[in-house]
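Dear H.,

Thanks for agreeing to be a second pair of eyes. The structure we're designing against is below in token form, covering all 230 positions.
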């Protein structure tokens, strides 16, 4: 069982983030629980890579002196699984916003879906979603989006080393992606729909790996708190 000194000297905690929690909320919750358990006034806690509220899966949390390693962990290759829904788009590229446009999918076959993934393998340019926490002129992009203001977004260079279709059921396409830091899977879903001469949005997302860290070794927030108090 970890001690007060263990957390202060630095720990890497693997948390399986639940649906509808922000990464910031997870960090705040764990920081509060650690402080309460050990009567610590102050302790550094941070995460190595944001997950959207509608995503679940691996969140690498660093405490104490290990927070200095956050940038190193953030830069590592990540793996995601999820579902892209074909035939409709949303402004946020996922289910955070309502469907704003629908498209024909009659021409889309299973073989076309699998063939189209090849367009996204390797070094590519990607435009981040306007509904994202990236900053421009001191404001988050989602602040511009929610205010209905147009904002110019620059493309970023990313790398996708694997893009595998794992299941196709009606309009729902399950996938696995291995990608570099800075990749937005929501943008990938939107771009994938365009490449299919249709539209698409991300309807489910789970982060399964960051570097050598695997969600299979992660714990739930509830179980982490139980472990602290035992």
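And this is the sequence the design step returned. I haven't edited it by hand at all.
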């Amino acid at each position: 069982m970890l001690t007060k000194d263990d957390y202060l000297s630095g720990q890497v905690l693997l948390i399986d983030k639940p649906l509808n929690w922000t990464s910031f909320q997870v960090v705040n919750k764990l920081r509060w629980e650690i402080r309460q358990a050990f009567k610590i006034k102050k302790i550094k806690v941070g995460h190595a890579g944001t997950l959207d509220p509608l995503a679940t899966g691996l969140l690498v949390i660093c405490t104490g002196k290990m927070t200095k390693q956050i940038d190193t962990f953030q830069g590592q290759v990540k793996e995601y699984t999820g579902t892209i829904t074909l035939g409709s788009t949303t402004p946020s590229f996922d289910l955070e916003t309502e469907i704003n446009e629908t498209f024909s999918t009659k021409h889309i076959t299973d073989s076309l879906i699998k063939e189209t993934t090849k367009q996204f393998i390797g070094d590519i340019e990607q435009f981040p979603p306007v509904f994202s926490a990236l900053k421009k002129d001191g404001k988050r992009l989602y602040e511009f989006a929610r205010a209905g203001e147009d904002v110019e977004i620059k493309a970023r260079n990313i790398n996708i080393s694997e893009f595998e279709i794992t299941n196709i059921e009606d309009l729902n396409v399950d996938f696995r992606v291995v990608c570099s830091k800075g990749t937005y899977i929501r943008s990938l879903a939107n771009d994938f729909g365009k490449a299919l001469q249709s539209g698409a949005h991300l309807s489910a997302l789970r982060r399964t790996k960051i570097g050598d860290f695997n969600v299979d070794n992660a714990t739930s927030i509830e179980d982490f708190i139980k472990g602290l108090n035992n």
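Two observations from my side: The longest strand covers residues 156-169. Residues 89 and 101 are 6 Å apart (CA to CA).

Warmly,
E.
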